[in-house]
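Hi support team,

I submitted a single chain yesterday and got back a structure, but I'm not sure I'm reading the token output correctly. Could someone confirm the output below corresponds to the sequence I sent? I've pasted both exactly as they appear in my results page.

Thanks,
R.
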Amino acid sequence: MARPTDPDYLKHQTATTMAPICPHPLRTWIAAVLVAGVSSVTGAQTQQVSNIANVQVDVMSESDYLSDVPTVMSVSRIAQTLDDTPGAMTIIDREFIRLSGARDVVSLLALVPGFQSTTSVETDAPMATYHGRTDDWANRIQVLVDGRSVYSGFLQGSAGIGWKSLALDDIDHIEVLRGSNSATYGARAFLGVVNIVSRDVRETTGVAGSVSNGANGIDDRGARLGWRSGDASYRVSVSSEGDDGLRGAFGRSYTERANVAAHFALAPESDLDVRVGSVGMYAGRGTVGDFTGNPARMWFVGNQFVQADWHLVQDEANDLSVGYSHTENRNRDNFHYAINDPSNPYYMAVVDFSGDEIVDTLTLQRSTRQSAALRTVVGFELRQENDISASQFDGFGGVTNTFSRFFASAEWRLADSLLLNTGALAEHDGLGGDSISPRAMLNWHFAPGNTLRMGGSTAFRPPSAYEKYAQLRYYDVNGANPTRYYVLNDGTLQSEKLVSTELGYYYAPPTSHMNADVRVFNERIINGIAHTDSGDVNPTPQVYVNAENYQINGLEWQLNWQPSANNRVFFSQTWTHIVVDSSLDGEVLFRTAHSAPSYASSLMLAHLFDSGWQVSASYQSADNVALNSISNSPLLASSQRTDLRVARPFHIGKTKVEAALVCQNLNVPYQDGDWKFRFEQRTMLTLKFEQ
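Hi R., thanks for writing in. Yes, this is the structure output for that exact sequence:
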């Protein structure tokens, strides 16, 4: 396979018939899964896999329709129902994922109140963020996959490729906390937390596969094999996604992943979960015909990881958990400068944005039921991030950062109708120093199915290694004659601080088959981290500084209603107002003030006909959000998008099959991430089977 910077390879990427990039190891995995599935598990146990609010797809039973309130773990590390959590939650279940017709997690989050997402890969992997996108990275929310942080500290910090760790068919549900949660997870949970939970290995025995093809070169594949052996369960999944990207952007986007998961029942009171996986994305970047600042090229970003989580039930009141993960992130983005101008002193010099990151995390926590009224969890976490990039850290090559965290949470039932959630996390960070992030939230169940929430929290986000220490300049082909510094940080940048207060209302009457959540918020960011104007334009280097103080005020609410066993409605609205006091001006100030839409809404409707046909439609809108522009001056844009999905499940013998037609963006093309990029209408056919 040609390297991403080879001229012949770049030329090949401009063709609309570009073949997918598929390294031999992944091809081998796919072949192994399919062969093993056909030969050895044809008669495996069938598992019902589609469920929306615990409602079966084929037959929606009364017991499913009247199911219990969901329980979540990702807010306080204590299992809680939604009316007891210290914050506003959105739960995206498996059936919601299926009905949406989405192809990745970030597209799903666009329907969640307060979230913005983009499929652009011009500066980073497709990403989502909460309450504002002040730059091209989403570095103020924590993203977890089965409890493992996929946050990468490389560059400005971002969940990056971590969003694509799992195929949608391997996800059980997604827990979204809309609000700061540094009291539980530390620095990166500054504005919110997204926890992507995979399906239980014990419930995915047998063979499954999927294929999707459609407009804009959509070409997606997936295969899964699961089996049991004694007290152990195993699952192997491989998948790929490919399309021709956004209109106006260069190159085809292609993602491939492989995941292995195993569950071991060590004893009646102990179990072990082990997960190993890798994901990689190839995508186009830059502009055709530009041979200097941002030429057309292909780049690669990916990671591989191993994770082990051990859980012991000591007795009826005490649980102990130990988790360890090792993650390696890789970014490859480089090109030759001025390849059409031999007279240029930097002709064919390499401009390199590449880097590697190695992350190790160890977590220990103990949960205790002190009494019928009091539950607690305490623990600590050690995390080390080693960012390596000779080009981004000129002169010293990389930065190693270590986090030491001690956390504690308590759920105290003061009375039958009053619940107090408290928690705090003490953190030592090599780049940001010491901090304590507390939270207190009072939940008042003033009537059956009616809960008022009120409280607040404090959080800190330390600078990333790049924000604090990046020094960027370039050299000629001989490694001599350095240019001026384009980025020059001196290591004095400090953590930014958040003070958040909120008032909420959760409505879920026992017999109404609906729930609604309202959140009124004030999020005050102090010493906000921003950068001066680009060093590519101005003669002075770009520098990251604590230059912004601003408030994010607003109201958001969501409704999830199931008026009958065959119908579902999801609706949300968000009003956001940002007031900025900044020592910076121009583009930076404008993007902060308009980093979130002033108004956004989403709607999803789903209906199951008695004949078995299923129809779902979703709509999302966003008003007045800042985008990049060709002139490097951001502009305000508004967008609307309507998606439609029509599907028919059926059986071929013992094999469950579903065929679906999905039309994305029935509206006019809208700007996605940048003024020059457009998300156009896409139609695709999907076929899935499970045995």
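A quick pointer for reading it: The chain has one domain: 7-690. Let us know if anything else looks off.

Best,
Support desk
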